[in-house]
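Ticket #4471: structure output looks truncated?

Reporter: J.K.
Steps to reproduce: submitted the chain below (304 residues) through the standard prediction queue, then opened the result file.
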Amino acid sequence: MSSMPASTADVRAARESGRQLILDVLPPEHFEARHIPGALNACVYEVAFLDRMAAIVPDKSAPIIIYGAGEGSLDAVTAAGKLHRAGYSNLAVLHGGLPAWKAEGNPLEGVLADEWEPAHPVLQLRDARYVAVPAESGILWTGRNYNSRHTGTLDIKDGALIREGEGLKGLFTLSMNSIANTDLAGTELQGVLEDHLKSDDFFFVSHFPTCTVEITDMAPIPEAPATLPNYRVTAVMTLRGIAREVSFDANLRPLAEGRIALMANLDLDRTKWGVLYGSARFFKYLSYHIVYDMISIDLRVVLE
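Returned output as attached by the reporter:
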């Protein structure tokens, strides 16, 4: 076992005796806002965590009580494991973390000691229309075959989301003429591939210069954590004059100054929109012209 459990009584005794170090392992801005009086700070999420510990506690036999965000967060346990593997031998973890200390009415220090913010930014949508910011938005795409893959970008021309109750609807336009390759940048083949993608073999840009994505339903996913998608999206994508329904999960997250970001990762079967070049489902004896049917999409749209 890398550590022993500690109680709030143990922390009070450590504060009174000064014989044990009390270690806060949360980010420095959280520590500045509120912490147990007398505690020191080394953020377990930082790569330099052990270097920081070596600077503030060079004696690896020193007794240390570690605390973090409490129930549902592995910060203190993770810190104890890292310290144990680094040779620290006298470790204890405060059960319940900082909330347990606060719940008993024990004192806190910091610039916001009397306040308690959410663990992660909370999405608070206004009852209004959010408009896309094309300069900060776009799509990264990946296409593949047996021997290689190609990557590139696609611009979002315009778009908007409109709140409807707990959900949203919207319409976005993609500029197909903006499709660009990145992995062959600086070579003659870059232009060759880009021209091919714009031709009738692929996206037939001369006849179909835009692709539209109409979001018909965008419903929140209950209790989704901050690092998993929090909305389920249903949309109709019209490409090469063909409309097909697509569904995917997405992150809709708050940014500074009331802006939001819509992000998603998904794979699309290009053949559903008539993009048939290189598909073994429609052609034989393709040789090196084989192109996998699925295209990977990494989407990010900033809206304000």
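Triage note (M.O.): checked the attachment and the full token line is present. The chain has two domains: 4-103, 129-303.
Status: closed, working as intended.
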